[in-house]
Structures are given as C-alpha cells and as structure tokens.
Amino acid sequence: KSIMVLNGPNLNLLGKREPGIYGAHTLADVEGLCREACARRGFALDFRQSNHEGVLLDALHEAGAAQAAGTLAGVVLNAGAYTHTSVALHDAIKGASVRVIELHISNVHAREPFRHHSFIAPAAIGVIAGLGVRGYALAIEHLALACPQDA
Ligand code: DQA
Q: How far is the CA of 106 from the CAs of 11, 21, 78, 109, in angstroms?
C-alpha cells in the first residue's frame, strides 16, 4: 500500500522561499523525510508537486480510485495558497471520497487573515499546521496507523 503526499503551488521553491516562515528545508528534503516515515511503517511513497490546480485535481481523483482499490491509505495534502481559494479542490476530495490530511508547514492561523479560511479543512479528516516539515511525517504516521496494510 502507498501514501500520496501532494504539494501545491510554490512548494517547489521551499528552501529559497521566505525561509523565516517555511525554513531551510527543500522539497527534496521533505520527500526524503516522507520516504523515511513511509518506510518505517512499510508503506510506499507517491510524492508529487504541481503549480497547476487541474493537475492537483487529477491526482486526487487518481488517489480516490487507488484508495477504493485498496492500494492507497490516503493523501497528505499541502495545497499551498489553493487551500484558501479552491472550491474545486474541496469538491475533488468529496467527489473522489479520498482520505486527506490537510498540511501546512506554517501556522496559517497566526498569519494574515486571508490564510485563516480553508476550503480543504471541511473535506479533510484532520489538519496539521505550524509544526514545520515534521508535520508531513506526523501526518504519514497517522495514515499508517489509521489505515494499516491489511485493512
Ligand atoms: C502553506 C501556507 C499557505 O497559506 C501558503 O499559501 C503556502 C504554504 C504552508 O505550508 O504553510 O503556499 O500551505
């Protein structure tokens, strides 16, 4: 079984992008820590990033099908700024009936008011925000425990 980690817009810039907020880790570093977290629980990792909303929608549809087929435990989704704008992502999660944990590196609730609303949260099983890149590993740990290999 696998776990999908899906990253949205601008997350390819991690490491260079506002390091005071997002830290010095690159997206490749995040992929490495996700791979370790998955391996620890015997899961494969499907790690993706796109700056394009439609590509994220297609990935969620694919994830829903894989979850229904029993080959995917769920998705860790850092939708970046689309979190705060995208009804389409909300609808994709609901429509594909896919298990999603919403993830943010920064504590969006301690930042600008336009980051306080999430279209993802009502469709997600839970939300992790503000724990830095370690949040990805914690989200993976939850999916691994909640959806074991034999379930
Ligand atoms: C983010 C928070 C969002 O508000 C922002 O647009 C991002 C990154 C985070 O991981 O903290 O791109 O999702």
A: 12, 6, 11, 9
